[in-house]
Amino acid sequence: MKKLFSFFVVLLPLAAMAQYKSQVWSPDNGNGTFTNPVINADYSDPDVCVGPSGEDYYMTASSFQCTPGLPILHSRDLVNWEIVGYALNNLYEGDCKLTAHFNTPQHGNGVWAPSIRYHEGQYYIYWGDPDFGVYMVKTKNGDPAGEWEAPYCVIRGKGYIDTTPLWDEDGRCYLVNGWANSRSKFASVLTVREMSADGKKAIGQPVIVFDGNGTENRTCEGPKFYKRDGWYWIMCPAGGVPEGFQLAMRSKSPYGPYEHKIVLQQGKTNINGPHQGAWIHTKYNEDWFLHFQDKEAYGRVLHLNPVDWSTGWPVMGKNGEPVSTYKKPQSSSSVIVNPEESDEFNSPVIGKQWQWHANYDEKFGVPTAFGTMRIYTYKLSEGWKNFWEVPNLLLQKTPADEFTVTTKMRFTSKADGQMGGLIMMGHNYQALVVKRVGKEFQLLLITCKNADKGTAPQEELIATLKPTAEDKIDYKPGIHEDIYLRLKVELPEKNTLKNQKGFVGKPQVRFAYSHDGKRFKDCGTPCEMRQGKWIGAKFGFVAVETSPKADRGWIDADWIRVTK
């Protein structure tokens, strides 16, 4: 398929130096301005902190059940971001019971709304798992792109979400959090409690410091805790996710009472629900707010807005409304870089854009020494309903409103019924897969609507394919299919006008295939792309089978490329 391991391993240092620029969305206009969103991908509930250099910004975001979890992104100017690592491997290593719980997809559960802070030489991330409690991880050596310690349970219990610590000048530590109505049966309140100085346990009782019940500030959640000029500040969203707004509240005591104001809202713009994110003060004495916008099927994409403190309150955007294009933050960096999307699979380490849909098991798949990524067929249990149940989906986030994904792959089958291919996953999903039937393969377009409801998928036969290779000498010979698969995310022309919520139409997913990588044939009827549970739709690879005793088949993905 490709060059041997010994060849491409020499190129690793050079590859590590390369800066990835997306072909489908880059916010840096190259003239000192940027266009929102600064990341047109699903980084829900973002938080950012500034490193000791004053010009290294590190971001994390909700990762829910996907692993590795707690993505770490780095920027030098708040506009150009790259993925540099993850703070979590599997959920929750060291706790056998909880690890087993997340070995199967737990859609929408797990890591909710984290916060990242730098304190006394280490980076800390706190988050609320609504089913199990408040957790914290910290760096081992002060490098957020490096190794992180095992997660530590700070407060055990149900309902805790959206946690942020604040270390005060006197060394005392406080924690603010929201509450998940689905677990606690109350919500729209924020509580503050004192923690031990090391941030590892609660030493005080919670105090309700804000109550949005019965007001426009319903669904107040996602609080971030700061201190500025002697004032304690809590910044949080309220009013709902797609239609809400951003609040700022201040008090002379961490326990309130807090006065509050709306500091960012949609107004006359087409950017809906601008809220929940991070206030950043830079070494150049500038202030910025990084937050999300809910774009339904695409997930929650990231916007950057200036912050004006001249009134004593953090008025965000332009007079409290979000900007579309603006001058970049002052910075010594001029590098244009974006989160990676395409992958040549030339490294013995999986690309940082990829996540599994549950806790990773090495039998899901591994990189090879041959310039490919191998994904083994997952053995589905008897009575399985659809791919919503599959943990070994290797997926990444959608990077733009419209884009094309092409992969070159070989599917190897050892037994009837094994299948593998390309998928766009969400509440609806569609996949183009190669499935073994006897001594041949069927190319199937599999469509499932409302997969989360257990709906049975529908199969459409696209073509019957002769194997492109067969094993002649093997204990259990396999047959192989070399093929190019493609998916396009498109917006129907009638839906291209932005609506009042600020996103464009309902994206459609269209698949195609080729045997030479040049002439592609469209497949079947396009499917409406839909988000997953609290996450945007994600694309990547699926490989499954129903035989409990057969040797596994596999995909060897040669490369995957994201283009316009």
What would you note in describing this structure?
The protein has 4 helices and 38 strands. The protein starts with a helix and ends with a strand. It is mainly beta and 564 residues long. The strands form 8 sheets. Strands 23, 26, 27, 29, 30, 31, 32 and 37 form an 8-stranded mixed β-sheet that branches. Strands 24, 25, 28, 33, 34, 35, 36 and 38 form an 8-stranded antiparallel β-sheet that branches. The longest helix has 6 residues, at 12-17. 4% of the residues lie in helices and 43% in strands. The radius of gyration is 24 Å and the shape is globular. The model is unreliable at 3-17 (pLDDT under 50).
Task: Describe what is shown at a glance.
The strands form eight sheets. Strands 23, 26, 27, 29, 30, 31, 32 and 37 form an eight-stranded mixed beta sheet that branches. By secondary structure, this protein is mainly beta.
